[in-house]
Design brief:
Shape: globular
Strand content: 5-15%
Number of helices: 6
Radius of gyration: 18 Å
Helix content: 55-70%
Order of helices and strands: HHHHEEHH
Distance between the termini: 42 Å
């Protein structure tokens, strides 16, 4: 393929459209969450991911797994966890079976805030998708998002309705 290859150009245009759709959705949700709850999209996503943990086998995530789920580096995830812990929304504790491991749980205050923010997130997501659907370049992507079935092993992500 060359730089002027139509297949490469179409692929690049498709990627640009997908990136545009993602950016618009994330920005819309960010504004809504910040205005109503003082949360960023990343903070909401982290609370959502951590709220899904359970006490059964494999129920608690290691920091690398959390970072992958919220699409951040481990260091950025650690900083985000620290900020939310400082706000009383998360609590860290030692793994009972491996004293080197540290887990993070959502506090009661964090669970309350997440429950309050979830409808805002979901509404903002629907609004952003509806707005994007009016754009002929984005409409096929919006339709794909709306018709996509959940993966067998869902990984919580920014802006995904709960």
């Amino acid at each position: 393929m060359t730089a002027t290859d139509p297949a490469l150009t179409a692929l690049a245009q498709g990627w640009c459209a997908l990136s545009l759709l993602h950016g618009r959705i994330e920005a819309h949700i960010e504004r809504a969450l910040q205005a109503a709850h003082g949360l960023s999209v990343r903070e909401y996503s982290l609370l959502d991911v951590l709220s899904r943990q359970h006490d059964g086998e494999g129920g608690h995530l290691q920091m690398k797994q959390v970072a992958d789920a919220v699409v951040l580096s481990q260091s950025a995830t650690t900083r985000l966890v620290t900020r939310l812990e400082d706000r009383g929304l998360l609590a860290r504790y030692l793994c009972p079976t491996d004293r080197r491991g540290i887990y993070t749980n959502v506090s009661e205050a964090g669970l309350r805030l997440l429950a309050e923010a979830r409808p805002t997130n979901d509404t903002a997501l629907r609004e952003a998708l509806d707005e994007a659907a009016a754009n002929p370049d984005l409409a096929p992507l919006v339709q794909a998002v709306k018709s996509a079935s959940a993966p067998a092993h869902p990984v919580p992500s920014v802006g995904v309705p709960s």
